[in-house]
Amino acid sequence: MIALNYEVKHIGKNKFSRPCYKLLPVKAYVVHYTANHGGTADNHFAYFNNLSGRYASAHIFVDRHKALEIIPLNEVAFHANERKVGPLIHSLKATAAYYPGGNANLNSIGIEMCMEKDGTIHPDTIKRTILVIQKLYKQFGVLPIYRHYDITGKKCPLPFVTDSKQWTKFLADVQKEEDEMQFSSPSLKAETELTLNSKARREIIVNAAVKAGAHESWRQKLKEGTITDADLLGLAAKYIVDTNK
Ligand SMILES: [Zn+2]
């Protein structure tokens, strides 16, 4: 298990990389890669802090050692708007008086995976990017995750475009790790148990369990109100794979 090592060090205001435009409510997370051989998160901080002559940036840079937030998460970064006709994902066609045009940069957070010298993305970098998205889930909610490629057609992150199985696995791992995190978090476990107490929740569990093969008499117990939390947890564990959905 690797550590998140999330650092915050914002670049200065810069019209090419940090225009200080307000970010609209976040609708998606966009994953990129730097396409820059051997460039670390710190290298990219320095690069975007001094950027001039072209518009580019992203909120968070992830390398094999840490994650570095270089643009505040309530501001726009220039990471997914090189397509003149606007984003391919309709829900990301945002617009604002200060930044008109229908633009995914206005309502998404851009995360860059740093590339190794040999052009690959280190497994720790990928793993850490998953942790970053899980952190963002807690801050902004469980939102769609897109490749830059999905939004504008740019081949970014290239390894996730040339081999879409890697991308599918990445998405599954975000979910998988998220599930593991839920089990390891006492507060979330308590929340899940609390939801078992609602009447509707009890009905859902019993009906699903009976449908999956549990005895009909559980329905009677539910009706009589003699069913216990232990019964419900037992039914859920035995007949329902995921009680949290
Ligand atoms: Zn990109």
Automatic annotation (TrEMBL):
The keyword ATP-binding is annotated on this UniProt entry: no
SMART domains in the record: Ami_2
InterPro entries linked: Amidase/PGRP_sf (IPR036505), Amidase_domain (IPR002502), NAMLAA_amidase_2 (IPR051206)
Organism: Sporosarcina contaminans
Annotated PANTHER family: N-ACETYLMURAMOYL-L-ALANINE AMIDASE AMID
Pfam families: Amidase_2 (PF01510)
UniProt keywords, alphabetically: Cell wall biogenesis/degradation, Hydrolase
CDD domains according to UniProt: PGRP (cd06583)
Catalytic activity line of the entry: Hydrolyzes the link between N-acetylmuramoyl residues and L-amino acid residues in certain cell-wall glycopeptides
Top-level taxon: Bacteria
Name of the protein in its database record: N-acetylmuramoyl-L-alanine amidase
Domain N-acetylmuramoyl-L-alanine amidase, residue spans: 16-170
UniProt EC number: 3.5.1.28
